[in-house]
Amino acid sequence: MNIGELAEKTQLNAKMIRRYEELGIIPKASRSLSGYRQYGDKDVNVLIFVKRARALGFSMKDIKQLLSLWRNKTRSSAQVKSIAMKHQQELTQKLTEIQAMLKTINHLVHNCHGDDRPDCPIIEELNKP
Amino acid sequence: MNIGELAEKTQLNAKMIRRYEELGIIPKASRSLSGYRQYGDKDVNVLIFVKRARALGFSMKDIKQLLSLWRNKTRSSAQVKSIAMKHQQELTQKLTEIQAMLKTINHLVHNCHGDDRPDCPIIEELNKP
DNA sequence: CATGCACCTTCCCTGCGGGGGAAGGTTTAA
DNA sequence: TTAAACCTTCCCCCGCAGGGAAGGTGCATG
Questions:
Q1: Looking at CA atoms only, how far is residue B34 from chain A in angstroms?
Q2: Second CATH level (architecture) for the domain B1-75
């Protein structure tokens, strides 16, 4: 199958598929005589794996590792878990940061009249020494 | 004051200060005879404003607008609030996404033995059709 | 058989918000 | 005078994605 059909099946952009190949996320596709990338059903699975991992927020670096563990039948689940736990920690960190931002923003928005007058607690907060 | 001192006072990188100037976030600094950027105390305040807004997760685009509202004494607080509310919505959106990811990740990590065996619910989840 | 159109190829530019470092000029203190 | 600390511009890189140009290919239709 050509890249367009693969893109269709995986709901990924053809551009992204080429990029993933370039980044070494997926193996280099074989080519037709005219240079078109040729794919099989396996490739659909690989890309869906990548897509699911992306949806969980894994970085490309992590996904590379996860893919190699996936392919490696002698992997230990501890290796997989270690990647997942690192990501878990990063996500938790981000969550905390966003919660802190939101706490402040919610407070500021709540206290801003939002009328025609210039007085504004949001501006005041940003202007604090 | 030179850029280094300003960077010191604002705890920002001199590189970032130049970049902010280039992006039009802050006005172009006047130059000494030898071409060094010259700053005054006002600039400290501007950069601290930018820094605080960054800490709240505002985009550079938003910060540009917030700065111009800050400078504009005939602003309406409604204009400020509108920017803040848009950002509030985006942050809430991000929060929800991360919470959803974390929910799955937490579950997967919890169910993965993390031992020497290859069987792993994390890999299985990513491999799902 | 030719022409058009959808598809494919590579290449470079854009965005965000930074960071690193080279190559060279300036200021200041020893 | 010389060394160091500072400044300048310039281009490179990261992650992750998208846009679009310029040109080759595959296939149905007239």
A1: 32
A2: Orthogonal Bundle (1.10)
Q: Is the pLDDT of residue B28 over 90?
A: yes
Between the CA of residue A45 and those of A11, B64, B129, what are the distances in Å? 12, 45, 8
CA A116 to chain centre: 41
Partner-chain residue, chosen from B87, B99, B108, that has the shortest CB–CB distance to A95 = B99
Mean pLDDT of the residues in chain B: 96
Those residues whose C-beta lies under 8 Å from the C-beta of residue A115, and which sit 6 or more positions away, are B76, B77, B78
Could you give the CA distance from residue B81 to residue A125 in angstroms, rounded to a whole number?
13
Predicted confidence band of residue A128 (pLDDT cuts 50, 70, 90): confident
Distance of CA A121 to the CA centre of its chain: 36
- Separation of CA A128 and C1' D14 in angstroms? 33
SS3 of residue A58 by DSSP: coil
pTM, rounded to two decimals: 0.92
Q: Give the model's pLDDT for residue B106.
A: 97
